[in-house]
Amino acid sequence: MSTVKEEITANLRQVAAGLPSNVCLVAVSKTKPMAYIEWAYEAGQRVFGENKALELRDKYMALPKDIQWHFIGHLQTNKIKYIAPFVSMIHSIDSLELLEAVDKQAQKHKRVIPCLLQFHIAAEETKFGLSLEEAEALLQSDRFAALKHVRIDGVMGMATFTDNREQVRGEFERLKQYFEALKARYFATADHFKEISMGMSEDYPLAIEAGSTLVRVGSKIFGARVYA
Ligand SMILES: *Cc1c(COP(=O)(O)O)cnc(C)c1O
User: Fold this and answer.
1) Distance from residue 212's CA to the centre of ligand 1 (Å)
2) Which tens digit of pLDDT belongs to each residue from 183-192?
C-alpha cells in the first residue's frame, strides 16, 4: 500500500513527464488539504489552480510564497479583493464588468494582473464564457482601452463533459482558432498574448494536440474530489 503522499508524487511525475516543454501544468488543488499541496510542492510543482477566492487566499497565506496561484473558477466581483494582492493569473474573465473590477483591485495593489478571456466552447449551457463576437466587442471598447492594471495573456475554455473525443477535439480546435483570430486582430505585436488554457484530467492530451499551453489538471494528480 502506498501512502497518499507517494501517490501524489507519482501522479505528478507521470503527468509532468507527458507534457511538451512549452506546456505549463497548473495543478488544480481545489477542495484538497494544504498537505496535498505541500507534497506536490516538495515534488517540484510550483503552479497551482483554485476556483474559490477565500480558499485560495487561505492557502496562499499558509503555503510557500514562491507558489504561483492561478484562479480558474467563476469569479464574483465582491471576492476579487481577496486574491488581487498576489494572484498570478485569472483564467476566467467572461465580461468587461469583471475585467474592470479586477483592474480596480489590481490598481489598489499597484499591480498588473495577467488575465485570460474565457470562451464558451462546450455544448452545456451551464458553462460560462464569451462568444467570439462578445470578446471582440470587449477588446474594441473604449472602456477596455482605459484599463491599465490588467493584461490579456490569452484564452481559456472548458470542453463538453462527454466520452465523444471528436467533439472535444473540435471544441479545443475552435478555441485555438479564436486565439489565432484575436492574436491577428488585436495582439499581433503583443508577445504576452500567448496562452491557451485548455485541458483537464480527462482530456488534456487532446488539448495539447490542439495547441494548449496551460493544462489544468486536478483529480489525476490529487485524486477524485468529494463534495459534501
Ligand atoms: C476543477 C477544474 C479543473 C480540474 O478538473 P480535473 O478534472 O479534476 O482535472 C480544471 N479547470 C477548471 C476550470 C476546473 O474548475
Assistant:
1) 15
2) 999 999 999 9
- For residue 165, give Cα distances in angstroms to 85, 107, 199: 39, 42, 12
Task: Round to whole Å and give the CA distance between 141 and 73.
Answer: 25
Strands (E), 94-182: 113-119, 150-157
Looking at ligand 1, which atom is closest to the CA of residue 72? 13
- Count of Cβ atoms closer than 10 Å to residue 136 Cβ: 16
DSSP SS3 for 108 = helix
Q: Which three cell numbers mark 96? A: 468587461
30 CB under 6 A from ligand 1? yes
Using a 6 Å cutoff on CB, does residue 93 contact ligand 1?
A: no
What stretches of the chain adopt beta strand conformation (E)? 24-28, 47-50, 68-71, 89-93, 113-119, 150-157, 195-197, 214-217
Residue 227: the pLDDT is: 74
pLDDT in tens, 120-171: 998 887 778 999 999 999 999 999 999 999 999 999 999 999 999 999 999 9
Hey, which of 29, 74, 200 would you mutate to test ligand 1's pocket, going by the most ligand atoms within 8 Å of its Cβ? Answer: 200
> Does ligand 1 come within 6 angstroms of the Cβ of 74?
no
Dist CA 100 CA 45 (whole Å): 31
Nearest residue by C-alpha to atom 4 in ligand 1: 218
CA of 89 to the centre of ligand 1 (A): 16
Q: How far is the CA of 50 from the centre of ligand 1 (A)?
A: 9
